[in-house]
Amino acid sequence: MRSRNTRRGAAAAAVLLSAGLVLAGCGGDDDEGGSAGGTSPGEGKAECKDLTQFGDLSGKEVSLYTSIVAPEDKPYKDSFKLFEDCTGASVAYEGSKEFEAQLVVRVKSGNPPDVAFIPQPGLLQTLVKDTGKVVEAPQSVSDNVDEFYGEDWKKYGTVDGTFYAPPLTANVKSFVWYSPKMFQENGWDIPTTWDDMLALSDKIAATGIKPWCAGIESGEATGWPATDWLEDVLLRTAGADVYDQWVAHEIPFNDPAVVEGLDTVGNILKNDKYVNGGIGDVKSIATEPFQEAGYPIADGECAMHRQASFYAANWKEKDPNLEIGEDKDVFAFYLPPIGEEFGNPVLGGGEFVAAFSDAPEVQAFQTYISGGEWVNEKGKATPNGGFVSANKNLDIANVASPIDKLSTEILQDPDATFRFDGSDLMPGAVGAGSFWKEMTAWIAEDQSTQDTLDNIESSWP
């Protein structure tokens, strides 16, 4: 699960950066921003219209650094071909499993890449504030994000009022995985409200099947799936405004609204009648690997598992023959709202494109990534699924898998309220530290809701 691995590395990177590293140089090309001059190779081609303003970039190279490695790197490399054809520039792709730590080293030594794919806003803020080497996005990129994305996405690429990084990919976390076959055979309807979901849980429990299965073990990051539960529910019980205040610590971590939210989660995860189907009791949630936690669904031992769109990849690890779709072996439905007051909240995550150079070819690359062409090129280059974007120009027909299609529809819904994973926005000591640890204790030791939130509040830097 790359999104969580990069998360752990990002926390380490934030610590290194905040320790006061002395950074020098801005790396990249020494050319000033703007046009390179000459006639663009894409002149007269409709698909290149946003890039011709940068002139002829033949012979120029954009160095790209990312955590995305083989085989996931191939669709990205293929999606850059249109950029290379339109501009004449080339993209030097470098993926590394040590991305965050090495990015810090390269920035420190004055040799950062031209562009880096940043896995969450927290790391972007750290890079901007502690290095001063991230380059403000050009107007063409800002205009693209205004046109193709909701305003929330631009906010996540902005630090202290300056816009730096357009979105790259996205994921939706507000999903409940289930077995369409099991639901059909038992006459269970997909719930559309929280009360319906609890009523369904009671109905399933009465049959002797545990309605829910869960697991939060993830090595050094154990606990993160439980933080997602709280974030998703808090958006539904308190709304996006309170959620934003909580993430920014404008209200304490143990605010009564958060207590209510975690107690609401506990009504499911700490309910012996509901969990942990096919695995064990409530405490087993703390030791069950999150990668395998949904597997009992495929075996008919539990009915529902709350986990993100990226969990689709784990079903193939369970059984390569399992099919994902609304009439297949497994699929997911949207985690229902709690009441009507706060609409249809969506919890998710994503990556961002930060630049360390303002050379024309770098500005052109950010413009391409943030525009309406790249997302469709990337969709077509990812035939096996695993690509989701909040870009409104992404044609659903170019999205391969059913869960990716559903995720894209949810992200493009004008009535949906999107919020980024809160722990990814919090200081590393909390978001990748005490929050994980205390949520684990909440499950494993039956620690009270109040003690759990009090402990996290006391750890806030």
TrEMBL record:
The secretion signal range is: 1-24
Q: Which InterPro entries match?
A: Bact_solute-bd_prot1 (IPR050490), SBP (IPR006059)
Print the keywords alphabetically.
Signal, Transport
What PROSITE patterns is this protein classified in? PROKAR_LIPOPROTEIN (PS51257)
The UniProt entry's sequence similarity note says: Belongs to the bacterial solute-binding protein 1 family.
The protein depicted here goes by the name Extracellular solute-binding protein
